[in-house]
Amino acid sequence: MTLPSGTATLSFWYSPHCPDTLNSDQIQMQIRKTSGQRMATVLNVCSNTGVWTQQTYSIPRKVAGRTVVLWFNVHDDGNASNPTYALFDDVAVN
Predict the structure, then answer these.
(1) pTM (predicted TM-score)
(2) Cα separation of the two ends of the chain
């Protein structure tokens, strides 16, 4: 997607399910270049609340106006006894 120039805000809702620790499992959201390089980390958590939570992020001027990838990721260490996952919804850039 191409981000708007000037001041912009990214927002989304997520429901975290991470019964492990941040050292082992992560729920992440990053803004990346189309080549894959990370430009900004918006979210990096391990929470097991399951509660829908709104995340907002003021997009830095150095990123504004560029074509980027909005990268949502869940990293799980593979331990079947404590699976990590997340739900994401209502992603918007204003």
Answers:
(1) 0.92
(2) 13
Sign of CA dihedral 42, 12, 84, 50: positive
Can you tell me whether residue 70 is helix, strand or coil?
strand
Q: Which residue has the tokens 């189309």?
A: 34
Each domain of the chain, given as residue ranges in start order, spans 8-93
> pLDDT (tens digit, 9 = 90+) per residue, 55-64?
999 999 888 8
Q: Sheet harboring 38-45: ordered strands across? A: 38-45, 26-33, 68-75
Indicate the residue type of 54.
Q
Question: Which strand ranges, in their side-by-side order, compose the sheet holding 85-93?
Answer: 53-59, 8-17, 85-93
